[in-house]
């Protein structure tokens, strides 16, 4: 289906059994719940989906499972996080054949690219598929920043249509609009500055903590889109302590543990990621319990 490039797109987790094999049933149930609770799209195989911990055939199986359970209700995007450009090209070709609707492309993994190398990587991936592509710009995690000048080069690739902006510098969002107008659709890519990103013109939010509180995430987006910022801030301030879990090295474990607390999945990750320590779990539990105890009745916002 055509990607609408608007709204809240959770970067979903990949659920594992105790032996670290993929639990496809739980993964599909979790994705289905998110769609039923109003998210606007699904992203599989992102960082939170533990892309780099999966074998090639497992990634294809995840794509097939996601397409099956979503069944055309919302767009399904796939993260592209391969160690070489050739493998990334191979992956997008396979994913297009499976029926994925678009891609969120990361730079080459393991090797820290220069900007020139990252741009080349993105170009080759874009030229290998007719599907729309979102550039994932996350210099803090991946060590390479695609600058405004770099995005000018990538603007020549017609199917590079969006950017997930995760520099943690909200000024970049305004710079993108100033340089390119509406050439790129901008998504906020850092949970704890998502509201600021939406207020600056981002039309979407890619989120990890949406896996735990999807309805509240969608409500924040709708309020921001309607310019109801005072109401959005009230809900935002309630959510913010949990959203900060998205910006620490153990974000995957924290999000999956919060999912487990919410009865939405399992904390199990695949090695080398290990379960949180007991102190870390207590911290996440405290944030989750505080959020649950102070949860705001969304009906007050009259968003239906």
From TrEMBL:
It holds the Pfam family DHDPS. The keyword DNA-binding does not apply. One of its GO terms (molecular function) is 4-hydroxy-tetrahydrodipicolinate synthase activity. SUPFAM superfamilies: Aldolase. Pyruvate binds at residue 206. It comes from the Bacteria. The active site is at 136 (proton donor/acceptor), 164 (schiff-base intermediate with substrate). InterPro entries: Aldolase_TIM, DapA-like. The keyword Acetylation does not apply. Keywords: Lyase. Belongs to the DapA family. This is Dihydrodipicolinate synthase.
